[in-house]
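Design review, sub-item: ligand-bound model
Attendees: FS, YL, KQ
YL presented the inputs for the 5-O-phosphono-beta-D-ribofuranosylamine complex:
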Amino acid sequence: MRRVAVLISGRGTNLERIVAEVRDGCLSGVCAVVVVVSNRPEAGGLEVARRAGIPTRVVPSSGLDGEAYGRRLLEALGPWKLDAVVLAGFMRVLSAEVVERFRNRIVNIHPADTAEYQGMDGYGWAFERGLSETKVTVHLVDEGVDTGRVLAQETVSLQGATTLDDVRRRGLDVEHDLYSRALRRWFENEGRSWDASTGGRAPCAES
Ligand code: GRF
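KQ shared the predicted structure:
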């Protein structure tokens, strides 16, 4: 079983679905969420984790530059012997040091097609343009902002969506379905090459 940290900043609906899929869904027996880390103490997702009995850590980011924050984050992640880091609404860009430590082991979900739109508020972007459809993207995290290799994508129909809330609701429904399925496939596919290179076991990040 892969040991996963989920990083959040907000309400944690993607986290909630992942936890449910680990409990008795498509991620059951595939991975375990061993810790949830938030950069904001008030993130609702921390309560989701507590209810599920998952250890939580708050690593506040306010006032810290990217590099300093990255070092704090690595300290917090170090003891957990992680195979992968899953970003679920984590609103800080990871420093190059964090990306390097977990190279090809960090996954994010982005509320747009990363080839068309990078950065914050992808649903606002789609709504303002009056798009009839948009996409959500699961991708690996590299040093850029939403530039890593795409693992999975799904279309969100916005036909008849009249408010931004409506766009967000439709998008999140698709995200929740897509993320766990994409994680499962990723663990199955890439996990084999991790295993091959390490004689049967995914290497853990150094602690
Ligand atoms: C999602 O729309 C995700 O795509 C984006 O941040 C939002 C997080 O929502 N990166 P939640 O905290 O999982 O409800």
